[in-house]
Every structure is written in C-alpha cells, then in structure tokens.
TrEMBL record:
Protein's job: Thiol-specific peroxidase that catalyzes the reduction of hydrogen peroxide and organic hydroperoxides to water and alcohols, respectively. Plays a role in cell protection against oxidative stress by detoxifying peroxides.
Protein name from the UniProt record: Glutathione-dependent peroxiredoxin
A molecular function (GO) term: thioredoxin peroxidase activity
Family per similarity comment: Belongs to the peroxiredoxin family. Prx5 subfamily.
EC number: 1.11.1.27
Cellular component GO terms held in the UniProt record: cytoplasm
InterPro entries according to UniProt: PRX5-like, Redoxin, Thioredoxin-like_sf, Thioredoxin_domain
Native source organism of the sequence: Pseudoduganella lurida
C-alpha cells in the first residue's frame, strides 16, 4: 500500500553518515528511528532512485539546497533526501553536492523504509535492483500533509519548487 496524504509515516529506520562527532552521535554511519526524528517537526522529504545518478545530482538535490532558506522561512525544520544507498555513499554524495548542514542525506540501503512507504520501484532492467520512485512529501509531526510522486522517469512534480508552492 502506498502512503497517502493524511497517513502517519510508517515506523522504520534510516542511516546517515555523521561528519562531526557529538555526544549524541558518533562519527560515521548512525541509524535513526524515523518516528523519533519527525516528532514535533515539519520536514520536507524527497526520495530519488540513487546517489550520483544524473537527474538526482543535476536537478533534484541542487533544487532543495538552493531553496533551503525559503523552506525554513515557511516553517520547515529539516530537509531530508532518502535514497536506496548506504550511509557511506549518501555521505560522500552529500559532500560532493555541498549538502552538509542543509539537506540530511538519509540512506535506506536495503530499501526497507522505501518499501514501507510503498514507493519502491524495480530498476533491475538498469542493473540497479530495487530503488525508490522519485517523490517529495511534507510531514508535520509524522503526518503526511503533501505528497508528489513522479510518473515513469519524469521530473515534474517532486522538485523543490512544487513542494515550496504547496506550503
């Protein structure tokens, strides 16, 4: 079943490569419970097929980085990028995209969370296995308020500008 507006995000975990060690987080990959992270927050989330892929690197991530201040002005606490990659890859991609401190690059290495959202896709014909559909959503205190899912390889509704316009 695919998640829809009004649904609560499913329980699950995502991993993030932490660049700077703190008392709460060790350096390197850390696993976080999604329910804990979204509690009491407004979060813009976008999902995409994979790190370092053309449209994702040239358009999707840069759009959210470019508009991060506007999201904050509209009350968004955090921006997350979720991809079916491990935390090491997501961390490297985040550094390459200059996303550190702007967009949280969240890894879903086994696609477990993406499947729980019902937003997984079979990219086997491209040699990529199970991946994520391209989407954006807005969550407030764990409840989906906006959801934009792309159809078949397009990049028209999951961009930062569309989600900003819905806030």
């Amino acid at each position: 079943m695919t998640i829809k507006i009004g649904d609560t995000l499913p329980e699950g975990t995502l991993s993030e490569f932490v660049e700077v060690e703190t008392e709460a987080c060790s350096l390197g990959p850390n696993t976080f419970n999604v329910q804990d992270l979204v509690k009491g927050k407004k979060i813009a989330i976008f999902g995409l097929p994979g790190a370092f892929t053309p449209t994702c690197s040239a358009k999707h991530v840069p759009g959210f980085i470019q508009h991060a201040d506007q999201f904050k002005e509209k009350g968004v606490d955090e921006i997350w990028c979720i991809a079916v990659n491990d935390a090491f890859v997501m961390g490297a991609w985040g550094r390459e995209q200059k996303a550190t401190g702007i967009v949280r690059m969240m890894g879903d290495g086994n696609a477990a969370y993406t499947k729980a959202l019902g937003l997984d896709a079979d990219f086997s014909k491209f040699g990529m296995g199970t991946r994520s559909q391209r989407y954006s959503l807005l969550v407030e205190d764990g409840v989906v308020k906006q959801l934009n899912v792309e159809q078949g390889g397009k990049f028209e509704v999951s961009n930062a500008e569309t989600l900003l316009g819905q806030l």
